[in-house]
Each structure stands twice: as C-alpha cells, then as structure tokens.
Amino acid sequence: MTTDSALNSTQLNSTRWFSQLNWTHSFLVVSLHICGLLGLWFWPRPIDVALFLGLYLSTTFAIGIGYHRLLTHRGFVSPRWMRRVLTWLGAAALQGGPARWVAIHRRHHQMADKDGDPHSPLMGFLHAHVGWILKKDAKEGSDYRELVPDVSGQDPWLRVLDYKILFVLPWVLTALLSYAIGGWRGVLWGTVVRTLALWHFTWSINSVCHVIGKRPNETRDESRNVWWLGLLTLGEGWHNNHHARPTAACHGWRWYEVDFSGYVIRLMAKVGLVQNVVRAPKTW
C-alpha cells in the first residue's frame, strides 16, 4: 500500500510538472541548444566570427538599452523611430515580445527574491537561470499588451511582436541575413550560437547576480554587482546598482564600473537623439 501511494504521488507530481510546461518556450530552448552543438564540429570562419560579434553586440545593446532601460524603466525618452528600431533588434535576441518581457521584469522588481518573483533563486539556482522560462508564467493566457499598455500602446510595429509567436520574426530575419552573408555556417554562429550566448549571459543576471557578487547599496533584495557579467552584457551586471535605483539610465555608477550601454545612452543624449535621461549617483 505504501509503495502504491509513493508511485501515485510520483505520477501526480510528474503530471503537474508537465502541465506547468510552456511548450513553445521549451521547444525553442531545447532545440536551439541541440543545434548549437553543431558548433563543436563546424568551427567559425572569420566571416562567422564577424557575424557573431556584430549581431551579439547589436542585440545585446538593444535588450539592455531598448527592452530594459527604455521600455521597462523609462530611463530616458527617445523618438518613435528609435524606439521601434531598438525593440525590433531586441526581439532578435529571442527573449520574447516587448510587453511580455517588460511585464515579467517589472514583476521581478516588485517581488524581488520573494514569493511572486518570476525567477526567484528561492526556488533554486537552476529555476532562476532557465527553469522559469520553461514553465508557464503566472499571467499565461493574458494579453501582456494590456497589462503594460505604456509599452506598445497603439503602435502596431511594437504590438505585433507580442501576438502569439510573432516575436520570433526579427530573429528569423537575422537568420536570413546570416545565411545571405555566410551560408549555413553563418546561421550557426551568427544566429544560433550568438543567441545561446546572449541567453545564458542574460539569464545569469537573474541567477548569478542574486547569489554571488558585491552589494555596495542597501536594497531589500539579494541583488549583487558582478563585474564580469557587466562586461559580457554591456553593463547589465551592475545589478545591485540597478535595484537600488531602477530608473537610472546608467547602471555603472563608479569610474571602474564599465557600462557600455550607459556610455551609448550618454552619447545619444549629448548629440540630442534622446532626452530626459534619468541620472544616477556618481555617474554624471
């Protein structure tokens, strides 16, 4: 009887686990990792390295400057054309539509390291890193465009990216560009491996930056600064700074806190491309 009860409990837990899966995200994550293994056999040519670096830098800047600092936290104001360009380039990172990304990240700030945090390390490092992506979101089935109407509003160029799986469209366009320039090996390195690298570095902000690193600012969560992630993500690794003042457009507050995304925003402000930049202490 005890054995039967244990088996039934295991089956019930397995059924619950499968019912919580986001099958679209799970398929994308698993299949892309499998495809990425081809990089072990097909080493990059110079053109593949150029595609990898060019698309990695452009999509990483777009996620950090566009999705994160502009759309989510309103760290500065930009013209509509720039907002569209940054958003479409950000979607090419294959991290979901802008409204969904913003809604989840804002919820993270509201409930950081507590129950309700979409990717809390309280549920384990692996959950904070990638597990939360494989599971259905708490708002699954909702129209994220309505949850955060300030993100896309009535702009069809942005709203379309949160309609079903159309968020993959910009990523597909980068794959076509990579193929036109470097063939199938160009797609492997310029699109697949590039996406995997950015995924894991971005995910590390949710996992690593809430477990290890320095905490120069007192916050109500476990956010931490991790310098090497600051370099790999072009400034997002100064996570404790960010949680101390989320709306600040620059995350690197001290001279040694390298924040390439912040430097780009400062440059755009100087030449008049963006306005109303929210300043951070010890930066400007």
Describe the 3D structure.
With 284 residues, this protein is mainly α. It has a domain at 18-215. Helix content is 59%, strand content 0%. The protein contains 13 helices and no strands. The protein has helices spanning 2-19, 23-36, 46-72, 80-91, 98-110, 125-134, 144-147, 149-152, 156-159, 169-207, 227-232, 239-244, 260-270. Helix 6 (125-134) runs antiparallel to helix 10. The longest helix is centred in the middle third of the chain and has 39 residues, at 169-207. The radius of gyration is 20 Å and the shape is globular. Mean pLDDT is 90; it is low at 5-14.
Question: Any descriptors?
Answer:
0% strand; 13 helices; mainly alpha; 284 residues; 59% helix
